[in-house]
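ERR on first pass: missing label on line 2. Operator R.T. fixed the label and resubmitted. Corrected input:
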Amino acid sequence: MEIGKTTDGNAVMLSLSGWLDALSAPALAAAVGEVGETCDLVLDLEGLEYLSSMGLREIVRAQRKMSQKGSFTVVRVPQTVADVLRMTGLYGRLNILS
Amino acid sequence: MKNKDVQKKRKPLFLPSVLSFLVLLIAAAVFGVVRYFLLTGDGATSREALFRVLWETVPALAVLLAFGLVMLILLAASVVRPLKKMRTSASRIAERVEHHEPAVAVAGAGCVGALSQTLEEEEKELSALLARVAQQTDEQVTEREKRRAALAVCAAAVPERIDLAALTYGVHTCTLHSSSVGADLCDGFALDDRRMCVAIGDVWERGLPAALFSAWLLRGLREQMHKGRSPAAALSALNKLAYERGDGMAATLFCAVLDSVSGELRYANAGHLPPVVAGETSGFLRMRAGTPLGLYADAEFTDETFALRPGQGLIAYTDGVVNAFNGREYFGYDRLLSAVGEHFGNALKTDGVAEDIALAAKDFGALKEDDCAVLALFFPAGAHRLLAPELSELEKMRELLEHWLHEDPRKKNIELACEEIFTNIVNHAGAKTIRIGCEREENSLIIRFTDDGEPFNPLQAENGEKDFYSYAEGGMGMTIIRRIAGEIFYRTQQNQNVLTVRFPVIKGI
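pass 2 clean. output:
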């Protein structure tokens, strides 16, 4: 999986592409770890081909981290990834902009 | 003494009589008082009332008392007299015994004499019986100990826990020991990541020596095969060793190596019964008989090959199976073939085939004389791979699935479910090896995960609605698996966790 990072003022966008699975989840955790708690974090999933529960866990962790002082938005969710989010009942829980 | 005794006897009768007399008096008094007040209430003078009451009460009381007395006398006649009589008889008997009076002693001498004589005889018989029992018990204990020792050796020689690699190729064994422990030998082990060796044999001895020889042979065979020898070369080397050092012991042994990729079965035989090739139709494997190990220094063994087709299997057995006897007939080869046909079912059912066949023979006739062992080797019609319990092995697993699923539209979902199961096992089971096996059954895909970790049933893990943020701790894996898979089964088998997932033809998200 590749993670692209774009910063615009207080907003940080992480663009994920490839497979977010048990192997690559720690990379996302590290990337989110570098982002401050007060910023607006945007997760761009357009290039994501695959998502497993280990990846989902990191997304929920990111949401929890940003919920206090910042904001967390998921954008451009591909169909296959959306399917996994729906399957696990997380689609409605995340702040998703399509 | 005598009076005192009699008084004692009377005491129980005396008390009730006094009590009943008192009750009668009280009843009469109560009746009198009530009657007196009733009469005075009706206008009679107290004097008239008193006379009237006395006139009514006293005669009735007298009659009742008379009746009571009669009853007492009758009671004494029926109970006390026989008791007194018994007592007198008893004291008379006691006196006679004390003074050795002949009237009793004559009869007694005969009886007691005869009795004591009988007792002496019985004592002798009893001692003999006890001695016999003690001897038998000793023998039984020794036999039991010997059997236990032999079983312990058998157990040590053939690990009950066939290694995971062996299970990968569907190797299952079942040994039923007879009372004398015939020391059948049965083994299955991986040679490398694609070849699997199985062996079955029968030592021509019983008990502890047979068990020890069997253990020695199995160890030797593993050594030879791990050196890279062919089955025939290994049997040759073992025959030489057995001939030189086996102290006249002999054993039959069939040894085969299955290439799990090509299905090629390479085998050699040392006088063992021909195994059954099981599949849609079953028949005996053609092979040279060879010579039992340990009998001839110059015995020769030949490697032969047979190509197992996907879905076929090999059922090897010992003579205890075909020789099971029900009193009229032997289990025999025809029944063996029928049992194989009956029990060698589809991929999901092969696990118990060895046990089913062994039990079929056992149920047919008691295994009095010989052990009964069955070994089943299955060449699955799918793909399988052994994985280390590390997340980095995910790549290997995907490679296998990609290769096996080709352009299957369910590929991504199946991969996802498999990743969830795999990470679950890696995180929870503490396994050393994980095996994934894929098979097709009609339109369903069956993927089976086997691991040697602690017993862990992921299906019993929490599956309820959770607080959103608790998902940050994980726990979505099972949700995903359940949504994608059609059916999931968990069981433990030979100390392994086995999770079988069936993916039906169409299962939308």
